[in-house]
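Quick illustration, no need to memorize.
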Amino acid sequence: MRRSTAEATDGHRSLPSAVVGVSRRRAVILLVGILVGFSVVAAWNFGNAGFSGFSSTAARSMSVSWRAFWFGAFDPAASITLDKLSGFLVPQALSARLFGFHAWSLALPQVVEGLVTVVVVFVIGTRWRGGALACSRRSPSPSLL
């Protein structure tokens, strides 16, 4: 069984970022910095996010009625369903149900989804390209994929 040099020295698999010379701690600090920067940019004009007429109405009805939520209905009585898969509105409907129906409650799930995307791209890019520094330039955007 073949071992890499990192496994041979300490017996554990190391992060790919250690190969390039960036320690695990520095990679985590770099990732946290990227996440803070992304959060500031993504939530900059959070209160004035605006509504999409069709999507916000469907999210509101899905947040009011559990029946409309499960069937992906456009109205609370669940008599008119959406012409698309309703899964794209599930995070917005749950956020509106939890925090009330506001522009920021509809935009909040998209900011959280963006943060998750940045973390996933950072981890995949660090493992694929080998190096947190090289990946940090591309993780705020999906250009790595």
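Residues 117 and 142 are 8 Å apart (CA to CA).
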